Amino acid sequence: MNASIATNQTILVVGGGISGMTSALEAAECGKQVILAERNTSLGGRTSLLYRYFPKMCHPTCGLEINLRRLKANRNLRVMTQTEVTSVTGKRGDYTVTLKISPRYVNQNCTGCGECAKVVEAEIDNPYEYGLSKTKAAYLPHAMAYPQRYVLDASIVGAADGEKAKAACKYNAIELDMKTETVELKVGAVIWATGWKPYDAAKIQPYGYDRFDNVITSLEFERLADPHGPTGGKLLRPSDGKEAKNIAFIQCAGSRDENHLRHCSRICCMASLKQTQYVREVYGDEGKSTIYYIDIRSIDRLEDFYQKVQQDSAVKFVKSKVANIKLHEETNDLILHGVDTEGYHRYAAQHDLVVLAVGMEPESNGIALPADMITDSSGFIEGSKDGGQFSAGAASSPLDVNRSVQSATAASLRAIQVVHKTSATEGAR
Amino acid sequence: MTNANQQAVALYSNDFLREVEERVEEGEWVKMCMQCGVCAGSCPLGNAWQHTPQKLFMMIRAGKREEVLTSDSMWMCTSCYNCIVRCPRKLPITHIMHGLANYAHRLNLAPKGQPTREVARLFWNSLAKTGRVNELKFSLAMYFKDGIVQGIKNAMAMQSIGLALVMTKRLNPMELFGGHKCKDPGSLHKMIAKAREIEDRKKGFTS
Asked: Which chain B residue shows the shortest CA-CA distance from A256?
C-alpha cells in the first residue's frame, strides 16, 4: 500500500456493491484518494446476483463491467475485500478507522486457473446462490468476480483439502498461514454503502417459507432465472425439479407491515413485474404468473412498465394480500387463501411455485454502527451528526439500482466537500 | 327510529366515518385500513360473515351507515384475535368489531334475536343486577329465548349435563330463587350508572 493514501483527505467507502463502487469511483475520478472496503470476497454486491434489470431488461453484468473497467484504470482507488470496519473514531475531516481483514488464503499470484478447485473435495453452500447450490470449498465467487481470484473457505484450511489445493497451485498463490489482520487508517470522510439484505422470509409465519420447499424468495427466483445460476436459467421448483409454469408472486412479503418491516421497500413491485417477464421468456403464453398485491407501486416513469405487463395475457393481477398458504400434499403445490379487495371474493388458488417479493432491510441492522450515526425507524442510515459520514444507495433507503447510483453520486460529492474543506483549512498538500 | 338513532343521524349526517371515529370503541382506527384483506382471509369464521372486517371498514368510509349497523357480521367475531395479530397496520380489529356491535346495540339497530347479541344481553343483565352471573338463570334464559316450546326442548336435550353439574356441585338449583350476589349491589349500580354517564358525555349521547 502506498503510504500517501492514509491521510485525512482520504475517503473511506464501506461496501463494494453498485452504490459503493459508484461512490468510490466518482470521488477517485475527481482526484481524491479512496479506499473501498468490501466485506465479501468480491465486489458487485447484490446487483451481481440479479439476472436482469427493470425496466430495460438488460443484464447487470454490463454495468458492472463498465464500473470494473473504470476501477481498474484508476490509481486513486484501493479496493480491499474481506474487510470489515470495526470502529470509527474522531471527527469530520479527521477520522481514525479500524479495519479487520479476513484471510483469503490466496494471494495476488492467483491467475484464476481453477486447478485448486479441481482437487478440493469439500463442498460448501454457495454463498452467491442463497444456498440454492453447492460449490467447492476453493472457489471463484462468481463469473464477474473482482478481484478474479479464488478463495479458500476457512473450513478446509488446516485440513487435507487445503494442502491438496496448495500442492495443485502452480503459481504459489495459496498461503495457508494467512492471518486475520487489523489495520488503522486516517480518513477524512466515510461513505456507508452497506446496502440491504432480504427480510428473513421465515418470519412471515403464514407463508411457510421455512416449511414449504416451493415457497421461495424473489432473490432466489433471480438465481433460478439466471443462465449462470443453479438451474442454468430453467425455472425449476425446489421440491421436485418440476418446471414451474403457474407461479404466484406475493407482494409486500415483510414490507409495509408493522409486524415486520414498517417501510415500503419500493423495488419489489417492479421486481415482480420484471420476473413475470422471465416466466414469459422461458415458456411464452404457457407460463402463467399471478401477482397478489395491496397496490402496485411502480414509481414514477416505471408506470409504463406496469402498463406493459398489464397487457400481457399470461399475467394476472389479484388485489389482495394473501392471508395464508397451505400445502397441497399430493402435488407439493401451494394453495393460497385470501379475500380479494375488488369484490371481496374468497379464493383458494393453487400454484406450483410461490415467489415472495421480500422486503429490503438495511444490511447494517444488527451491526454496531459508530455512535454518532443517525438511523431512521427501520435502521436506514441518514449520516453522522458531525456531517463527515454519509450513506449511499440502499443503506440510506430502499432504492433500485438506478436510484442507488444517483444516491451514491450525491454521497460522493458530499464526502468530497468534506475532505476538500479539510485540506484547504489545514493547508495540507 | 329510536331516539338515540335519530340524534345520531342528525349529528353526523353523511359522515358515518366521523360518527364511528367519535362514538365507536377504537373507531378512530378505521381510517388506517389499507384494504389488504388479510383480516378477512385470516378469520377462521370468514365464511360466516356477510361483510368481512375489511369490507365493513370500506362500507364505513363509503357512508353505508344503515347496512353496517344493521348487519349481523360483527356479531360473528369470536375474539380469536387472528386479525389483530396479522394486521399489517396493527388495527385492533377485534375490538373495533365489538365496538361496532355495541354501538349498533345501543342505537337499537342490531338485528333482533341475533344469538350473540342475545347472549351478551342476558349475560350483562344478570351481571349488572347482582354483580354476579347467575349461571342457572342465564342458561335457562338462553334455553327459552325462542319461546316456551323450544325452551323445554332445549332443557330436555341438556338434561343429563345439567344433572351431572348438579351432582358435582357445579350448579346449585337454589340459585333459581334469588341467587348469590356481590356484597353491595347498590354501589355497583351506582358505579355502572356513573360509567354510563361518563361514556355518554364523551361520546355525545344526550339521552
From this structure: B88
